[in-house]
Amino acid sequence: VSSDVIVSDPLLLHNPVECREPPFDATCDVYRIKLNRDPSPEALNFVFFSLEFEPQGATPPLSAAVLGLSSIPVGDLDLYVYDQEDHRLGQDYPGGGNLPFALETLKGTPAKPIAEILEPELVGESDPNDFPPGGATLNVPERGGFTAKQDVYDIVVSAQQGSNAGYTFRVGFSNEKFTTPFEVLDPNNVAPPGFFSEIGDPTTPPSESPSPSQFDSGTSAIAPLADANVLADSDLAGIGLGISERFEAPPAVAFRGARNVSNAAPPSGFALIAALVVAPVGAAAAGTFVLRRRRQALI
Predict the structure, then answer these.
(1) Which of 146, 204, 229, 252 has its CA 20 to 30 A from that of 56?
(2) Which residue has the higher pLDDT, 50 or 261?
(3) Contact 86, 174 (CB under 8 A)
(4) Where in the chain does DSSP place strands (E)?
(5) How many whole angstroms separate alpha carbon 161 and alpha carbon 140?
(6) 130/145 Cα distance (integer angstroms)
(7) Are the C-beta atoms of 115 and 106 separated by less than 8 Å?
(8) HSE-up of 234 (CA within 13 Å, CB side)?
(9) pLDDT, tens digit, for every residue of 117-131?
(10) Distance between CA 157 and CA 184 in Å, rounded?
(11) Is 218 left (phi over 0), alpha (psi -120 to 50) or beta?
(12) Which residue has the higher pLDDT, 258 or 133?
């Protein structure tokens, strides 16, 4: 946990040596880590880190104030991992360095001839194996990691814009060994020696179907896979046709509790009207008549 004030240098990115000495020590902090790597080829030897901080607010430039724009948070911190005094991880990665980006920008200006002359001298050849470790973005917090190929690294914490009043830097190391998955192969289902050499490349479809003699190499044929014994699924058993895993039973067996339904003709329209309209109205009228007669008898 650091409470040091870091002020950005908009012109230069300083290496670990410069960050340890005045006056550039006010623009960046540097931490040297020494790793106890596992020499086993199976060990991962991976370093992971995070940088937590609170971005500061700043007064917008005059041009932004004239346009009525609000201030933007500044004080972004970035991490750079150095494996040498003058080289950081990802510096030679294609398109990963700040200098190539600056030269590409200059090529779109009248300074294009100068940029093309300086590029071979300043950039050099790119290295696709020089992977950038992360940690130099606009994200909060910054996170990244890299595979350790040596024991000592320098990590530089640098402010990119404005100043920052503190941060929390965490770094971890893992030398975990990942075991090879165990795979069981049935020797009876392995192709005999010379099988594919006689029938050709199995990934290339043959121009014509091979004759049975092409497969006769004096060895036994590939043993077929045995049928698997599949138990009935209790969630499916008895639901619809799902009384087995194959759904092959006829409906008469599946619906054992179903009753037979006659093939009678559907009712006519007159029968429906009589049942749904006439009968209820007649019953209501009869009930009303009976109740009126009973009331008169009581009076």
Answers:
(1) 146
(2) 50
(3) no
(4) 6-7, 28-34, 46-53, 56-57, 73-74, 77-84, 87-88, 142-147, 152-159, 163-164, 167-174
(5) 14
(6) 13
(7) yes
(8) 0
(9) 766 656 666 778 888
(10) 50
(11) left
(12) 133
The residue type found at 124 is G
- pTM of the entire predicted model: 0.49
Tokens matching residue 289: 């008549």
pLDDT at 270: 78
Structure tokens at 261: 């339904």
Q: In what order do the strands lie in the sheet with 142-147?
A: 142-147, 46-53, 167-174
Alpha-carbon distance 85 to 32, whole Å? 11
pLDDT of residue 140: 86
CB 55 within 8 A of CB 75: yes
Q: What is the DSSP annotation of 112-176?
A: HHHHHHHHHHHT----TT----B--SS-SSEEEEEE-SSSEEEEEEEESSSEE--EEEEEEEE--
Q: In this structure, what token pair is assigned to residue 286? A: 């009869």
For residue 175, which of 154, 134, 147 has the smallest C-alpha distance? 147
Alpha-carbon span 32 to 155, nearest angstrom:
6
pLDDT for 4-41, tens place per residue?
888 888 777 889 999 999 888 888 999 999 999 999 88
- 3-class SS of residue 88: strand
Neighbours of 108 (CB within 10 A): 9
- Residue-wise over 35-65: b if at least 16 C-beta within 10 A, else e? eeeeeeeeeebebebbbebebeeeebeeeee
The whole-number pLDDT of residue 151 equals 95
